[in-house]
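Entry, Tuesday afternoon. Goal for today is a structural model of the target with S-adenosylmethionine bound, before we commit to ordering more compound. Inputs were pasted exactly as handed over by J.K., no edits. I checked the ligand SMILES twice against the vendor sheet because last time a stereocentre got dropped in transcription.
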Amino acid sequence: MAENDLSRISQCAVIGGSAGSLKVLLPMLAALDARLAFPVVIVLHRKNDVSTLEQLLKERCPLPVKEAEDKEDLRCGTVYLAPAGYHLLIENDRSLSLDASEKVLWSRPSIDVTFQSAAEAFGPGLLAVLLSGANSDGASGLEYIRYHGGRIIIQDPRNAEMSAMPLAALARLQPDLLLPDYAIASAINHFLAH
Amino acid sequence: MTLSVTDEEMALLLYDIQDIYGYDFNDYAKASLKRRINRLFVLDRFPSFAEFRFRLKNDAGYFDRFIEQITVNVTEMFRDPAFYLALRNEVLPQLATYPFIRIWHAGCSTGEEVYSMAILLREANLLHKSILYATDINAHVVQQAASGVFPMQHMKQYSENYILSGGRHDFSSYYTAGNNKVLFDVSFKKHMVFSTHNLAAESSFNEFQLIVCRNVLIYFDKDLQARVFDLFDTSLERLGFLALGSKESLRLSPANAKFRPVSEQKIWRKMI
Ligand SMILES: C[S@@+](CC[C@H](N)C(=O)[O-])C[C@H]1O[C@@H](n2cnc3c(N)ncnc32)[C@H](O)[C@@H]1O
């Protein structure tokens, strides 16, 4: 696709979460605007169970929710879920690729891997959200997002069930917004890239 | 944040590699290829991109390392046991009707998949009339696959996979254990042919009743995937089977029209 193609998707939201993030995510997705004009890509650490999570999210979210498939094109207003056991990457042409290479920080899918590829694909058009978790995944991905001009929201560690993941990221950078769980959906709904 | 190779730099590298070594990586899925290249760049501690590029251009031995490191070789025996169960139940009974069975494992990595297939064939009493062709772009893994030697540490998990795949024998009866390694029954090897083969560049070399290409195509872009499906189409007999990885599909490619899905487990049959 050409650089100046007007139909090319210019914005995207990526959300990374680990332990304690599911109960933040469910009400958050329920509160998303049904007319959201960009895709939302979610990477969660979890056990090898795909369908139940997809089902849970589907029931609550006003937007279509689906497991990300290899080489599918991103669509505005759709929520994509990284499948268990695969890294999920966003290509410059706005399609998705799966990758079963080594785990990164003991995780596959890795939040860092998705964040980094999204940073490069969307630059300032990217909004990243890092939620509760008990490890340090996502921190290095957020650095790439900062470098490429994307917007960063971190769940307030005082409000997170597991504060380690937000704290690890905060040790590396200051987010644009530090928010409690209930305020995140509205920030996503109002995201307009500069 | 670690320094990384840019899109433009990657394009230069891929151009050099094609020019000097004749390997074409241009149609690999860019984001994951770039990750692999960055990983190697960091792993080998190059002070600058220029030095990385110079080394690759001028040191053929280093290019071998590049191939070894850039490809994703993660594999296991009876990976996705439900897939092997489907092979046992849906595919092998059909293959049994042929006088000779030719199977191609494209992207076989270190061979775990090939040995899993050989075990299935032996248990279905078909191995004696089968030949398994196992190929990969990475010469190093092909060599390992051909040795029939595997690390001991994974056998417990493989044995569990084997049972989930419908295996009823004692998995450990298929190998002899040495220190930290196991050697699989050497009689399997008589039915296996190992060779390097590049799916992105080389053509068909035989006609098969079953082609297994699992967890390889996700590393390719859509165009290269379509080309490889055409290659598989020409390499399959009519009514032959094509088996892909659990996240791969024929659905988006033009070759799809000639195939019919036969199982949830990503197995298709060529109808015309
Ligand atoms: C993840 S492994 C899959 C191993 C096994 N099929 C499985 O599913 O467990 C992918 C393999 O594809 C090989 N490969 C990558 N590009 C290739 C190409 N152009 N031609 C042939 N093999 C290739 C890699 O070297 C690697 O060994």
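Chain A has a mean pLDDT of 92.
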